């Protein structure tokens, strides 16, 4: 939203793509959370969706033929705590490793090998984090995340991320389940191979959607954009940075305008 409380106008090409999208019989609106529904903040537990985004998501969720989903890198428990999504909104967490597609969603269960790999990755990240004030390690069912947003010296933040990446890559020689990925002021490791593209495909199959809208801000969202069908689905990059998404909006404050446009054309 702009300073005077008015949603910025949509770019004409995006407006026209949303109009065509809304004309499909069944649609899926899938949204990343951090940096899309909610502005990025220092502490992950303090993230909060912009009220206009939360309201627009709730409005869309109640419409006939419209499915909504959050597709997040967060653990499902953390996602539901900060996003407080509508009950009917489908959830993909841990970058695709966790799913809540109905009331009986099975919990993620790790094999003994995955648990051993996760414990080893955790020891590596915790010991590095202990040497860098301001850094901390987030625990998720399938992974661990080294956060450096609150490290005051950018060079120190870069160094610890680089050291951690090298250490985890070495550890992956012993524990091949370990994967490593970058995000915004984080280094993530997981012992379950999954990505948001797989999560989106699962949502598409589950909902039977004829068209999918996906909005994301981070490098991990590119796996989602890669699964979209040109001319049918709508991919929206939120904020700056290279992307395969054909459309872009400035930030979370511009998302409600997108959601409201779809809601208006579906009503
Ligand atoms: O896929 P997302 O919903 O965008 O989740 C990606 C990661 O989000 C969280 O970290 C990011 O947001 C934090 C709060 O704004 C910020 O402090 C951090 O620097 C960001 O990287 C979350 O903590 C991670 O687990 C998610 O993977």
UniProtKB/TrEMBL annotation:
<dbReference type="InterPro" id="IPR036412">
    <property type="entry name" value="HAD-like_sf"/>
</dbReference>
<dbReference type="GO" id="GO:0005992">
    <property type="term" value="P:trehalose biosynthetic process"/>
</dbReference>
<keyword id="KW-0460">Magnesium</keyword>
<dbReference type="GO" id="GO:0004805">
    <property type="term" value="F:trehalose-phosphatase activity"/>
</dbReference>
<comment type="function">
    <text>Removes the phosphate from trehalose 6-phosphate to produce free trehalose.</text>
</comment>
<comment type="pathway">
    <text>Glycan biosynthesis; trehalose biosynthesis.</text>
</comment>
<dbReference type="InterPro" id="IPR023214">
    <property type="entry name" value="HAD_sf"/>
</dbReference>
<dbReference type="Pfam" id="PF02358">
    <property type="entry name" value="Trehalose_PPase"/>
</dbReference>
<dbReference type="GO" id="GO:0046872">
    <property type="term" value="F:metal ion binding"/>
</dbReference>
<dbReference type="InterPro" id="IPR003337">
    <property type="entry name" value="Trehalose_PPase"/>
</dbReference>
<dbReference type="InterPro" id="IPR044651">
    <property type="entry name" value="OTSB-like"/>
</dbReference>
<comment type="similarity">
    <text>Belongs to the trehalose phosphatase family.</text>
</comment>
<keyword id="KW-0378">Hydrolase</keyword>
<keyword id="KW-0479">Metal-binding</keyword>
<protein>
    <recommendedName>
        <fullName>Trehalose 6-phosphate phosphatase</fullName>
        <ecNumber>3.1.3.12</ecNumber>
    </recommendedName>
</protein>
């Amino acid at each position: 939203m702009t300073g005077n409380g008015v949603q910025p106008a949509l770019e004409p090409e995006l407006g026209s793509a949303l109009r065509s999208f809304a004309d499909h019989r069944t649609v899926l609106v899938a949204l990343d959370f951090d940096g899309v529904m909610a502005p990025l903040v220092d502490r992950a537990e303090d993230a909060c969706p912009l009220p206009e985004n939360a309201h627009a998501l709730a409005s869309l969720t109640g419409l006939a033929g419209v499915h909504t989903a959050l597709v997040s890198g967060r653990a499902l428990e953390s996602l539901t705590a900060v996003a407080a999504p509508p009950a009917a909104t489908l959830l993909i967490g841990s970058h695709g490793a966790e799913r809540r597609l109905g009331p009986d969603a099975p919990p993620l269960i790790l094999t003994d090998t995955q648990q051993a790999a996760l414990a080893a990755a955790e020891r590596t990240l915790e010991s590095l984090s202990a040497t860098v004030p301001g850094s901390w390690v987030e625990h998720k069912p399938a992974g661990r995340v080294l956060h450096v947003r609150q490290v005051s010296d950018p060079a120190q933040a870069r160094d610890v991320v680089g050291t951690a990446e090298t250490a985890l890559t070495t550890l992956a020689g012993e524990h091949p389940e370990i994967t490593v990925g970058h995000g915004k002021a984080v280094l993530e490791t997981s012992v379950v191979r999954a990505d948001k593209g797989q999560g989106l495909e699962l949502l598409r199959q589950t909902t039977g959607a004829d068209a999918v809208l996906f909005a994301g801000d981070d490098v991990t969202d590119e796996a989602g954009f890669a699964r979209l069908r040109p001319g049918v689905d709508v991919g929206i990059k939120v904020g700056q940075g290279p992307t395969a998404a054909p459309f872009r909006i400035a930030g979370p404050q511009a998302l409600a305008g997108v959601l409201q446009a779809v809601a208006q054309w579906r009503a």
